[in-house]
Structures are given as structure tokens and as C-alpha cells.
Amino acid sequence: MDALSLLDRAREAGLAVVVAGDKLIVRGPKQAEPVVRLLAEHKSELLAALAETTGWPARHREALAYWGALNPAAEAARLAWGEMQWRWHRLHGERAAEWQCAGCGEPIGGLATLDLADGNRVHLDGLDCLLSFGQRWRCEATAALQALGLDPPADCNP
Fold it and tell me: What pLDDT, on a 0 to 100 scale, did the predictor assign at position 22?
């Protein structure tokens, strides 16, 4: 179970989870004790996830300031969001096996491929695999960033 899912489960059980140094402070109803045990078992992952959660908003603010220096506000927001998506994907995005197309999931076989900067490969007999993979990883990154409390610009497609 990943840390963010576990934190969602804790919230659903009525638990409040706070970090105090290297400790997790958990408060909530007695009937949520099984979830509290799960939190204790995954303490290190939870601490890392909570530390990461606080870093993403700060990095987003930095990206907005950077891109906003020379671009109109709406364009800067789109550029900053794209940067955040790429950063999340590089750190956490899915990696297909070397023999598998990241776009369609089929074996690469002897077909022409495009090796991508993230280590994935896609079929190059058309653009369908490349476009499909790009759309998928951007949607995954957007969902993850939203779970971390960030929102994309209103006019931004995943």
C-alpha cells in the first residue's frame, strides 16, 4: 500500500495525522485502531511522503516565479504546471520494460522505436503510441499533483 493511499484511508477513518520531527502523531476514534497499526508499520514511508508533500507546493511557487519573470501570467502558469508534471513523472512515473512499448503496451519486436528521455520506448511506426503515452503520463502526474494539493491552471489540459 502506498503512503498517500494509506493517508487517505486514515482520513476516511476519522484520523488526523501530524508529523512532529521523526514522530507521527495520530488522533482519532478508538475503532480506527487497525488503521493506526498500519500507519505505525509504514511510518518511514509516511514520513517521506509527508515531507515530499510539503516540498511540491514550494517548488510550484518557485516555478511560477521563474516562468513569470518573462512570460504573461497565464502562459507562466501553464509552463510551471508542465514543469511540475515532468518533475513528478521523472521521480514517480511508470517505466515500461525495455521490450514493451510504453504507449500501447505491446512488445517492441523488430519495429522502429523512439527512445524517450525518461527511459521508456514507444513504437515509431506512427505517432499513436507516443501521443497515447504522453497523454497517460500527464494525466497520472496531474492526479498525483492534485493529491498533493496543487491545482492545474484552468485552461490547461492534462
Answer: 82
